[in-house]
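Entry:
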Amino acid sequence: MKKNYITITLFSCFLILSSLILEAQNINFTIDTAVDNGVSITETLTVGPDTYVLQIDVAGTGAETIVPLSGTDLIFYLGSTTPANTFIITLTKNGNPTNFKLNGMDYDTLEDGFISLVNQDDLVISSNQEYLVGAGAVNIDNATNASNITAFKILQPDVNDNTDFAFHNIELDVLDTLGVEAFLSLDNQVAIYPNPSNGNITIKNSGATLNEVTVTDINGRTIEAINLNGITTDKNLDLSSKLSSGLYFVSIVSETGTITKKLIIE
């Protein structure tokens, strides 16, 4: 299968008294340069000043495995018939989680079998369907659920299919509309405290118009999504009953853009 590594569409939009850059980046993670660290698989691509890392994980198993398809053409699959057989794929940009659109993914299979794709909220991207022996593209039949997502999962309902299916060529669109000046302004206006926290936190807001806040875990799962209704004041969130110890990401959507902050729960 033909592999195009990265196609970048870049254009600039100048506004009065400010300059914002709109970058629509199409990235193909071929898996050919991926690394298996024994805990998860990652592939790192650099586009200009930005570093994107795709993470592939089967939580708590280490079963994800890289194998050669031919030559330097690599693919990943489940190296065992473990009952925990859900791949979770997430993306970071410069060390922070970023939203993306899933455009496509290729598969290779040794036997006929069924797979499906869902996003971080378990909304269907690709309905459960049979794929015959050979190679091809996974069918994305719900593009809406594949857009503006933080993660997607590969589901294999039959554990006997674990070692049959392998995947590569994950093509994503990453869209950033927040310019440097706007980002710095929003970053200075919004803070989370206390941090570290026990889960009872306050979003300190110095006048930004805030529309929504979403809390996700390191696997991209949405823990809480709250409509802020355009508030310009502080907002208290008591998440102590929903968050266990660990690292979380708080994405705050304002009228000018989105900013993501790390939250540590002790």
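The chain has a mean pLDDT of 83.
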